[in-house]
Amino acid sequence: MPLVSIITPSWNVEGLIEETIRSVQSQTFADWELLIADDCSTDNTPGIIADIGERDPRVKLIRQAKNGGPALARQASIDAAQGRYLAFLDSDDLWLPEKLERQLAFAKEKRAALSYTAFRRINETNTVTGRLIEVPASLSYGQLLKNTAIATLTAMVDREISGPIAMKNEGYDDFCLWLSILERGHTAYGLNEDLARYRVRGSSVSSRPVRSAKWVWQIYRNVEQLSLIRSAWCFAHWGARAWLKRREF
Q: Per the database record, which ranges form the Glycosyltransferase 2-like domain (predicted)?
């Protein structure tokens, strides 16, 4: 069985998915499987994935029966995952070649249930559009409630330490997952190295700040069931950090 299972949802990314896959295939650490759950794309995304998978059996296509959004697609990949470690990568983002190798060594050293790294932002033509987004050395549950530091493409979970992993069908399903892990008493650890490229597109699920803010508020109130006062306190901090991060971009 592979040591690392890479969790990737896809939908209508025929112009980008091959480059994302190539960034995984270029990793200096090779003991992985890439599980791409296609969410009923209407373009040739699944055909491209299947074609690459025929030549590299580590790349595996999972076809969703109906379009259900990224949370359900991620869960389909998680359900099929064989690795101890789960690494998350969206279908339009990229990893630098040493990402897995460096983060695995870091996660083992820290005995981290959840780890994350720094990254840079790129546009649709791969142009870097901002400076390095650095990350805090560690985050507790309470700190993460007020923070935007864990970008999905940088996250890695050690399932032997974290306990059960399940996505919630929420707008920020990844944020919900990180919170569920840390709420058990774990600490997340940040590797402040430039190892990933986060692509921002106008059609990205999280590209609209107002909608993102609504999702976070709903998570505070409906998922984490925080009081109104604590929700407002956390939201004020989250919003300030989100604004600063966008300025850094």
A: 5-135
* Burial (CB count within 10 angstroms: exposed 0-12, middle 13-18, buried 19+), residue 49: buried
Instruction: Name the burial class of residue 153, with classes exposed (0-12), middle (13-18) and buried (19+) by CB atoms within 10 angstroms of its CB.
Output: buried
Closest CA to 193 of 105, 111, 113: 105
pLDDT tens-place string over residues 119-172: 999 998 888 988 899 999 999 999 999 988 999 999 999 999 999 999 999 888
The answer to whether the CB of 20 falls within 8 A of the CB of 87 is no
Tell me how far apart the terminal alpha carbons of the chain are, to the nearest angstrom: 38
The whole-angstrom separation of Cα 86 and Cα 116 is 12
Q: At what angle do helices 17-25 and 45-55 cross, to 10 degrees?
A: 20
The closest of 82, 26, 86, 14 to 51, measured between CA atoms, is 14
Q: How far apart are CA 14 and CA 46, in angstroms?
A: 8
Distance CA 24, CA 249 (A): 24
pTM above 0.85, yes or no: yes
- Give, for 225, the enclosing helix (H) or strand (E): none
Task: State the virtual CA torsion across 162, 164, 166, 168 in degrees, nearest 10.
Answer: -80
Q: Is 94 exposed, middle or buried (0-12, 13-18, 19+ CB in 10 A)?
A: buried
Closest CA to 39 of 5, 77, 70: 70
CA 96/CA 103 separation, integer angstroms: 11
Instruction: Return the closest-CA partner of residue 117 out of 105, 126, 129.
Output: 105
